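Protocol step 4 of 6.
Sequence for Peptidyl-prolyl cis-trans isomerase D (Nitrobacter winogradskyi) entered exactly as in the expression construct, tag removed. Do not edit the line below.
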Amino acid sequence: MLRGIRNASSNWLGKTLMTIVMGLLIVAFGIWGIADIFHGFGQSALATVGGTEISTEQFRQIYNDRLQQIGRQFGRPLPPDQVRALGLDRQILQQVIAEAALDEDAQRKGLKVSDEEIGRQIKSDPTFKGANNAFDAARFAGLIRQLGYTEQRYVAEQRNMALRRQIVGTMTAGVEPSKTLLEALNRFQKEQRTIDYVKLGAAQAGTIDPPTADQLSGYFDAHKVQFRAPEYRKMAFVVLTPEEVAKWTAVSDDDARKIYEERKDKLSTPERRQLRQIMFPNVTDAQAAREKIVGGASFDDIARERGLAASDIDLGTISKSEIIDPAIANAAFSIKSDEVSQPTQGRFGVALIKVGRIEPGNQPTYESVAEKLKRDAALDRARAEINNLHNKMEDERGGGASVVEAAKKVGLSAVTIEATDRSGRAPDGKPVSGIPQGVDLIAQAFASDVGVDNETLQLGNNGFIWFDVLGVTPSRDRTLDEVKDKVEARWREDQISSRLMTRATDTIRKLEQGGKLADEAASLGLKVESASAIKRDDTTATLPAAVVAAVFRAAKDAAGQAPGTGNDEWFIFRVSDVKVPTLDVASDETKKLREGIQRGLSDEYVGQYIVKLEAEIGTKINQAAVAQITGANSNF
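Step 5 output, structure tokens:
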């Protein structure tokens, strides 16, 4: 429990908690308030929460919108079966029901939010502010459009969220963790221990003779499931991505040279100059200042005479195209380094310009960029061809062609994997090569079967995978002869582990009877080592997690034991010191800890309130409609 509270206190994003109306918190608790299947719904009703009806189209829109948002976070759309496997369909339903319950509660309580307040909240949202830190209407419209909202729908949703925040904020106001809870969690996090220990290895297990035939056979019979051959699948698949298509898209030298000529300016690195500029109201003043410079005054002297700071005259190191005023640009790039231009009439006045450091431009030759131009051109052509090839593959598949047949007709290459288990390994135990990344193709294959017309898988933003399961080799028990070497190795490992545990247990008993760890270590041919300032979550190559956990289960001066990272490691230790941290209530760390616990307690209250609220106002769900929208084959 303490570990859970501690993790919660360190991982919450506090300010976003209310913004998404407690997000997954409501999801987590909302399920307990959802009733079983009810009948008597209209054709368009998916659920009723009190007097609020959620239509099937309303839920479909919310469901699709949120899946799109989640897909953007993953970097790719999630297929329906993966959505259900992750439980996202149930979570979205539960969140919608919980939000509807809070909306119904706000209505019954007569809570209101004015249009002016909603407008103020939207305009003060940093997300919608432009470069000048002011509300940007175009940015607002673009961002909500990306999220699938109209302005009216977004405003309505913000109004509902504001009312929900009123309810949740009132309910959780004044939540404060007790000092006892703070002390307990502070100790759990910061307590430190010091131990003396010895590490037993294979040498302490003694000589282990090879097993007899009966021992090996008996061990194999007792552990047969560990040596069982996994299920294997034979599969064929086709990957269609711009990168794959580009591999067999040839670009001629003539085409590449045309691209080079078209992009020559973009491929080149323009000359850049360090420029400073002083503006004058007229040519007479500018000419007088230039004559002073010719007479020995510096450019900085003239700037100071005009009350200008260094930052006021510095244009930075820029290219000619970065200068807005053509007259100024031409003047700045027509003189040499350390020269001052003649008075130049620009759009905003008359300027004197001084050139500092000059960084020469560079124009690459065709030969130096030819390969990259060809790759880029092939990729561009491939992107344009993707949809056409995708449609052709879908047409062939729709006509009953297998993946291999369809690929051959379309001109794509199919890959056949003769056998792979669920972990992506071949029968020889080596990883299967050629499996595309970015989608769990093997999991999809093991969720399918021979002869099944599988859904096209999305790969990234513009890639596709088609696959067929061509054969299934069922899991089976192997014979002892097939895995004799592995069985003997596993038997030996278990023998070592068993002997080390027995030796450690005997040593602990002697220590408890007054023996000294140094003496026992010497009898085993080992040396005592020490480790200090160990915290509960410390895991190092020296002290594995199991050892640290055992150390914190033992009292001060008590001895203990724990396995290491392998069968040939065992630790014996004695806790020599325990440092209990004091609670500094004024420290930033304790304040952060308190805030985390406050959020956790607030979550508990909100979750319980939603459960009670749903039970009081009544919640009914048309599970058949939910299953139709989410593609579920069974009820929740």
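Step 6, annotate. The longest helix spans residues 366-398.
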